[in-house]
Amino acid sequence: MYADYGGLRMNFDKIIAVRTGKTVYKDGGRTVKVFDGDYSKSDILNEALNQARAEEAGLNVPSLISVDGENGRWSITSSYINGKTAARIITETPERTALALEALVNAQLLFQSYKLPLLTALKSKAARRIAAAEISDKKRKELSELLDTLPDGDSLCHCDFTPSNVVITDGGEAYVLDWSHASRGDAAADAAATYLRIKFESEEGAQSYLSLYCEKSGKRLCDIEKWIPVVAAAVSVGKSAAERNFLLSNI
Predict the structure, then answer these.
(1) Structurally, how many domains does the chain consist of?
(2) Residues 6+ apart with CB under 8 A from 14
(3) What digits encode the pLDDT tens for the residues 135-185?
(4) Are residues 115 and 191 in the same domain?
């Protein structure tokens, strides 16, 4: 299979994921995530840095191999993790949904137990995104005031943790992908982000996730619910119209 990358035709084994503005290819024992020209150099380097920090902390993440640029197109090359995403397991074998959600929550609680102080503060990032969200000035003011009352926290937060971003190997190990939005903050905010991402696909799945997360983490449901409108507004920036409308309906 050939892919155009900065004017060059590159030969990869197969496409393993297509997301807005990026395509992930398998290349032997590696994956190559190729970004379109809308991503800045700082975006790419920040994602690679976050992944490297998670890797150096000892978490199960794909090993970062290289960051490359050619004619305005960038790519991140990492080690390939042989397994299935939790999302694929749920789709292909619905009877294993409970096991996949448990693996998802266990992986989330593990990385949330880490502290990486050099990461961007979650509340600072949320404030910037709320300022850019497509909401009324009145609602922006209300959300900014609510954000000020919420805890800072110092947990490692993925902030885009979904069943598509965790690969479960045949041996049962979970590897977490896509660290572009990682930050340090309140773990409840990270759970709120995961809840919203799952809810966009399945209300039932989102409720199952939230119940399991609260049970395993000891977090109170109300502490996560406080974050939902703030996180919904923050993550709505840059989303498709359908997902943006869904997120803003949760404010």
Answers:
(1) 2
(2) 1, 25, 26
(3) 999 999 999 999 999 999 999 999 999 999 999 999 999 999 999 999 999
(4) yes
Strand ranges of the sheet holding 22-27, from the earlier edge strand across to the other edge? 14-19, 22-27, 30-35, 73-79, 64-70
**Is 13 in the same domain as 67?**
yes
**pLDDT category, 38, cuts 50, 70, 90?**
confident
Residue span of the structural domain in which 103 resides: 84-248
Domain end, chosen from 55, 79, 103, is at 79
Q: Which two tokens stand for residue 181?
A: 């939005």
In order of 1, 54, 109, 111, 182, the CA distances from 118 in angstroms are: 39, 11, 20, 15, 11
**100: Cβ–Cβ under 8 A, 6 or more apart, which residues?**
86, 89, 90, 163, 168
Q: Which residues pair with 30 in a beta bridge?
A: 27, 79
**Which residues in the chain belong to E strands, given as ranges?**
2-5, 8-11, 14-19, 22-27, 30-35, 64-70, 73-79, 84-85, 155-157, 166-168, 174-176, 183-185
Nearest-Å Rg of the Cα atoms of the chain is 18
Amino acid, res. 49: L
pTM of the full structure? 0.92
Whether the predicted pLDDT of 9 surpasses 70:
no
